[in-house]
Design brief:
Length: about 130
C-alpha cells in the first residue's frame, strides 16, 4: 500500500459519517453496503503538493464493520487515493481512477477500525456518496 507518506500534526479528530453490512464481490452485498450512503463534500487543495481531500484537514475517518471496502460514488470522474494511519504517520495507496456516477473502490479489503483519509487528484473539491 505504500506509495507515499503524509504526516499530520497533533490534534487529529475523527470525522463521522453515516452508518456503515460487509461488502464482497457480489452486487447484492455491495448494494447492502451502500444503501443510504451519506453525501460528502471534500475540501479543495492548494496546489500540486496539496491535492483536494476528505475529510477536513487534520481529521480522519475510521472504517466500520458495515463495508469491507471504502466505496465512493463520485459526481464526476476523478482519481483518488486512500491514506492510512501507520504508526505516527500516514501511508497512501496508488491513485485509482473512479468513474463519475458509478460506485467504485477507493480501497478494498480494509480492516474495521482503520483510520484513513482520501486525496483527490487536482485541487477542485470532490463530491459524491461514500460508505465504509
Amino acid at each position: 500500500m505504500a506509495a507515499s507518506a503524509l504526516l499530520l500534526g497533533s490534534g487529529i479528530t475523527i470525522a463521522t459519517t453515516g452508518p456503515a453490512s460487509a461488502s464482497d464481490t457480489s452486487a447484492d452485498a455491495a448494494r447492502l453496503c451502500t444503501v443510504n450512503a451519506p453525501r460528502f463534500t471534500g475540501s479543495p487543495g492548494t496546489g500540486s503538493n496539496d491535492p483536494a481531500f476528505w475529510p477536513a484537514r487534520g481529521t480522519y475517518a475510521t472504517t466500520t464493520s458495515r463495508c469491507a471496502d471504502i466505496n465512493l460514488k463520485l459526481d464526476s470522474t476523478r482519481s483518488v487515493r486512500t491514506c492510512f494511519k501507520k504508526g505516527t504517520g500516514w501511508t497512501c495507496n496508488a491513485w485509482r481512477q473512479l468513474s463519475g456516477g458509478k460506485w467504485g473502490l477507493a480501497a478494498s479489503d480494509v480492516l474495521d477500525n482503520t483510520d484513513f483519509f482520501l486525496q483527490f487528484n487536482g485541487t477542485t473539491r470532490a463530491t459524491g456518496l461514500i460508505d465504509y
